[in-house]
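User: Structure tokens for both sequences below?

Assistant:
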Amino acid sequence: MPKPDNSSFNVAVIGTFAPRKCGIATFTEDLKTKVETFCPGTTFDVYALDRRDAAPLYGDRVNIISVDEAQSYRDAARQINRSGVDAVWLQHEYGIFGGADGVLVTELVDRIEVPLIVTFHTILSQPSADQRGILGHILARTDQAMVMSEHGRSLLIELYGVSPDRITVIPHGAPDRPFGREEGFKSRLGVAGRPVLMTFGLLGPGKGLEHAIEALPAITANHPDVLYRIVGATHPNLVREHGEAYRKLLETRVLALGVEDNVQWDNRFVDTEELLDQIEACDIYLTPYPNLEQSTSGTLSYAVALGKAVVSTPYIHARELLADGVGSLVPPGKPSAISAAVNDLLDRPDSQADLKERAYARGRSTIWLRFAQASADLIAKAVDEHASGFAARGSQTLMTKDGGRMRFNASPLRLPCPAHDWPETAVI
């Protein structure tokens, strides 16, 4: 229910956060900045998961939860409860919290006294007993769950018995930029006139890049001027454990296949605006990921919203976002399928153009403005239903920021981010 127009929400958001270089850090930053931009009545206090010695990287406005210290989670919960925030929004991924399978997150959620919203970035269809126990523990303390796919919603209902009215599907947000500007951005990169393929992300075996590279000889045989741009630094965890062995393996394979003139490496974790510029410069975006349980890919959302022809393996996010002819799905681990799909698009420019237009049209439903509105509505729902639960149990008071008490106000809530203020967006 909406909150009065003269009111506002302050939310504690917990997850990895910029300048840390990972997908969830980018998502957490986007959640904060996009909602604050489009729904200015809502603000966020940031609690970043990292090592204690990384605190100077974040500045004074970000609170640090020392990822491997149980007491730090308890202290963060105490600080949040005392701060007077209206809700907590937690980003959950097993690997970002301390302890086996991220079990230390329970030290936090067990102590939160305000409405708890959780984004579940990974919901495994076959979790281990410990993984299932941790997720169930979090869900028992969650007021509202957010997932980014219908598949994730189904798993929460079927595996964990979560009531459907406690789950909201909000697709990953994406930029709202004009359509069809490839050649201008290619010129900036010095690749004007060439058909450009692209993959972006932290490099590691989970990206399936070796399969895309293996597909290149069959593509260059038909289109010798094609360029495959591989953008992104090697995953820092992989670098710590194995150095650049994976990248060197890929580079060696490129040389062995004789396609070194058709591959361009950009070994950096580029910021979002530069990433968007680089995606704009490509014709076909490749996500050859072998893990079909991957429920979210921010760059896939970006590529679709920017009107790119996408060739992808059918992981969860791709199956949903590219449904109804929005992209081309190929089986994992099959270079021949990648080359056939890419050649088909390059051989038939009209079909490629049509696919790009369908992608751009689909992307209008995921632009950041719509993501922000849906997120703001979810905050309002969590706060209202949590308060209604207090009322139903006979509680008539809520904590104020100074630790005093005030009477519970049962009037309808309205979030100051009205839909009728949205600008019109063109749909092709």
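Moving on to the next sequence.
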Amino acid sequence: MLKPYFHPQLIEAGCDEAGRGCYAGPVFAAAVILPKDFYHPLLNDSKQLSEAQRNQLRIVVEKEAISYGVASLDEGVIDTINILQASIKSMHLAIDQLSITPEYLLIDGNRFVPYHFVPHQCVIKGDATYASIAAASVLAKTYRDEYMVKLQEEFPYYDWINNKGYGTLKHRKAIAEYGLCKYHRKSFKI
């Protein structure tokens, strides 16, 4: 069961990203402030949920969250500053969108650059530990998946509707046949 918070008195935002290991498309990040008593039986790390469950939870999170923000950085930025820095920067941009300034940040993973003077805690497997990080993982994943499905219309042979830019066999075969397109990360060693 997910922990509802890290600090009982502080306004916490959970942060997570989606698309870090993809061959193509942007990295998305989300920041979510949940009520301290928030609970939903399905909420978990987005990778443990079906697409239908993630889409259902996105509606719940957007409705129930005290505040949330979603941001992305495209493949050009990723190629320029690297995927780790782009992931962290996109988290900062998502935090910027919050209507309430958080007093503490819970970050999924083990690396982060401080956001202004807000204290933070990095949590490995945080999306399976804290509700706010799990909620952020759901938003980041669903927003990114939605974006990649739109790109599918322009480049159908990469099968982004199914692989969302990850390096599946079908995606790799399409790259071998058609080459890279403008949405591929040129810095990713394929």
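User: Anything stand out in the second?

Assistant: The radius of gyration is 16 Å.
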